[in-house]
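User: Can you predict the 3D structure for this chain?
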Amino acid sequence: MPLIPDVSLLQLLLIVGLAAFSGIAGGITGYGTGALMPLVLVPLVGAKPVVPIIAISAMFTNSARIVAFRRQLDPRRALVALLCALPTCALGAWLYTLLSGRGAALVIGLTLIATVPLRRILGRRGRKLGEKGYMAGAAVWGVVVGGTTGSGVILLSLLMATGLAGAAVIATDAMVSVVIGVIKLLVFGYAGVITRIVLVIGVLIGAIGFCSTFIARRIVERLPVHVHTVILDAVVIAGAGIMIFGALR
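Assistant: Here is the predicted structure, written as structure tokens:
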């Protein structure tokens, strides 16, 4: 009996290759696996198992980011985000099959694109996202991240809007995402959607991503903060563009 039923060796190599690439990209930008891996996974295993697969793999990749960038972690911002997002994440995970509305994706995508120039304008005026705005944004993100993949870009945008930059964004995002991931996996496990193929593929992608993160750290250490910020801005815009494209398709 093959380790992963109905997945050929060529398909397995494709998963491994994309997992390594997205692991490095995600280690630099804090975002990547949730957006890239569904492109390969959906044709192979269908759409429904993708969310729990990414949730499992994210536990590995985000744990690696915490270890790699632990010195830049902002515990307070991570705690505030968790307190606001945990209840709504449980709701989102429970309703995840109902949270793929085109209208919602379109609104979120357009809002994210708008945050990039808006944040830069406010930054020049010495303004940042306030505590209440950050808390409200985290609560909304909790619903979205509970039931979708590729929505981590929302938290990245929120953290950058509060004034975080560079590796601090990656580390803080990872800390929040690990705890959120536990909640999602508990809900998915209770619902019985974590099957053998979900578990095997999720662990495979996660293990590769864990190792790839430390390659990404070497790259980040050599990037000036302003260059890293530009990269993060580009990722926010690209992630939002993917959401909009999916909504309009």
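The mean pLDDT is 79. The chain has ten helices and no strands.
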